[in-house]
Every structure is written in C-alpha cells, then in structure tokens.
Amino acid sequence: MEKINITLKEKGIKPTYQRLKVLDYMSKNLRNHPTVEMIYEELAKEIPTISLTTVYNTLGTFIEKGLVCGVTITGTEVRYDINTESHHHFLCKKCGDIIDVDVPCSLSGKKGELVDGHKIEEIHGYFKGTCRSCI
User: Which end of the chain is more exposed for a tag (fewer CB within 10 A), N or C?
Assistant: First the structure.
C-alpha cells in the first residue's frame, strides 16, 4: 500500500483512504478492465461508507493525472484500465470480458509522432468476438 501512496503523491493526488483502495483494486486486477460499478461493489464490502460518486470522482482524477485510462468498446459503458500504454483490447461478445491482446499495430506511428502530417495523441484498437473461455 506504501507504493500506491507514493504513486499518488508523485502525481499530485492527496492519498485518501478511498483513493488508495481504488488504485489498489486496479493494480490487483490488471486484466479485469472493471466498470465504476464493479469497483464500487467490491470496495463497498470493505468500506460500507464509500459512495458510487466517490469512485466516479476518483477515477476521473486518475484519468486526468494519467494513472488509468477509460476504455469504451461497447458504446454503453466505460471500463477502466491501469495500463496506460498504447495497446489493443478484445471484447468477448458472449461473456463481456475485455482482454488485453498483444498484436502489432498496422500503423508505425506512436504517441506524439506525425502520420500524414497529423500529430497522434491517442491510439485505440479493439477487436470483438468470442474469447477462448467461451468457445
């Protein structure tokens, strides 16, 4: 938990108990890509006084400071990812899991580089289908 405390302070975020617990949850569920509701439901078991608004606001702050990123694949919800490096995702249309996938990007561009004179600020890539657990 001390490492998480240091991480928050380095990003200029006051390390409240709720923020520590949200970031701890995210770091222990690296491949989970949870929703706000998933995080809230899990943390409410340990912190009955935590509110859904607190989780929303905490994740908003984390996005602003670059600690997590939002993943929107379904068009109906935002999932959160602690891996802020550019990478691709796979959405299982059967179980709803979102999984990091390691595939080469067809573009050679990276964040900050130019593609046809356009500066890249974000890279998003995703696939939809049936995961190996559901096949």
Answer: C
